[in-house]
Amino acid sequence: MSAHRLVIADATLRGRPGRWRIGVDDGRIAAVTQEAVAGREEVDAAGGLVTESFVNGHLHLDKVHTLDRSGDAALTAYTGAGMGSALRAIELASAVKADYDRSWIEPNARRAVLDAVRFGVRHVLAFADVDTKARLEGVIPLLALREEFRGVVDLQVVAFPQDGLLCDPGAEDLVREAVDLGADVVGGIPWIEDSDAAAREHVRRMCALASAHDRRVAMLVDDAGDASLRTTEMLAEAMLEHGLVGRGVANHARAVGLYARPSLERLARLAGRAGLGFVSDPHTGPVHLPVLELTAMGLPVALDQDDIEDAFYPFGRHNMAEIAFLAAHALEAVDSAGIDLVYDAVTTTAATVLGVARHRLEVGGNADLVVHREATLRSVLAHHDAPAYVVASGQVVATSTSSTKLRLPGGEPDVRE
Ligand SMILES: [Zn+2]
Question: Ligand 1 center to residue 45 CA distance, Å?
Fold first, then answer.
């Protein structure tokens, strides 16, 4: 038997007893077996859990590490008063764009992409503000990073009119320009327009643009503590009208968490018909999507990092195991089923939401894998360490270690890993 290009040996897998070897050839998983297959390169998982790599369903990548520039007035407004001041927060946060410049945005974004490599994040839905303040200063460096990191961290770059479309005249032309430059996804934020009619028009224009250029859509919808907001529904309707079934993502959609059950069920049916995927981030706001309920209704719901040290969230390391850990608490999903759900939401379910094919640890799946030091999902989340090995497109792209030397009085030195 000829050797595989790479073999991951002594792996623990989810839901399968025993130890396994994973053979990789040509960027794909060629074998998942308990037989002694050989590899020209071998990684010893040492009994650690091996899973699909992580997928980040939403990140404001042009704004990472800007909190020190913006101050935390927006943060206070966004998270306070049951998210009743979210609109004011967006106005305050736009101050960071007064001197928006690709020369300082690029190194910040690069740092977050390198953190993605370290933590095994393979795909990112990466939003760039494209509006009359940001112009194209955010989207241009993200497009360059997309090319540089392709195959290691794939960025789906979203041209995102953060300050609205009808209420920010000129933004629409810039979004069109960003799409012409190669942005993968057309963005939107309809809920901040001045009326439901304007919000509907915002959604219509962005879906028409996506349809005309064969792009996907991803919008920030209903992102405030206001149960009357209905732009998630508008997005699903527009996807059906513009031939975008299965090609749209609803981000945030926090107001959906305040809907009465009949409204939630109605939206779920419509979203199912439109193939609308959801992405939630309970760690960045006190109101959030009903993740467990929508998942139970059969809809794909992913979790995301959302922000890294910006005007809306002060923490974040691009560590999706940390996001799953935080979500397990916020969603009160700490039993085995809950832990499985939040882990799927940062791996396989998130891949489904982003339209990433073959993101499965099975023969024929992409060889995009993380090798954890811990053997169970529960301890992976408890520790949320960087994986021991990160494999992307069949290549080992990161290795990490962690150890502490104890020097207790009167005792022998002891190394804890
Ligand atoms: Zn966001």
Answer: 35
Burial class for 298, CB neighbours closer than 10 Å (0-12, 13-18, 19+): exposed
Q: How far is the CA of 211 from the centre of ligand 1 (A)?
A: 23
Report the predicted TM-score, pTM, of the whole model to 2 decimal places: 0.96
Q: Which residues pair with 42 in a beta bridge?
A: 7
- Cα 169 from Cα 12, distance rounded (Å): 54
According to DSSP, the residues that pair with 221 across neighbouring strands are 252
Distance between Cα 18 and ligand 1 center (Å): 40
Residue 65 exposure: Cα atoms within 13 Å on the Cβ side: 13
Ligand 1 centre and the CA of 101: distance in Å? Answer: 21
- Residue 298 Cα to ligand 1 midpoint, Å, equals 24
Ligand 1 centroid, distance to 393 Cα (angstroms): 28
Q: 44 exposed, middle or buried (CB, 10 Å; 0-12, 13-18, 19+)? A: middle
- β-strand pairing of 28-33 with 16-25: antiparallel
312 CA → ligand 1 middle, Å: 8
Q: What is the C-alpha to C-alpha distance for residues 269 and 239, in angstroms, rounded to an integer?
A: 14
Q: Which helix (H) or strand (E) holds 345?
A: helix 336-345
pLDDT at 94: 82
CA–centroid distance, 406 to ligand 1, in Å, is 41
- Rounded CA gap, 408 and 417, in Å? 16
The 10s digit of each residue's pLDDT in 216-232 is 999 999 999 999 999 99
Give residue 302 CA to ligand 1 midpoint distance, Å. Answer: 13
Instruction: Say what the pLDDT of residue 71 is.
Output: 81
Distance 136 CA to ligand 1 centre (A): 19
Reported as a single tens digit per residue, the pLDDT across 337-390 is 999 999 999 999 999 999 999 999 999 999 999 999 999 999 999 999 999 999
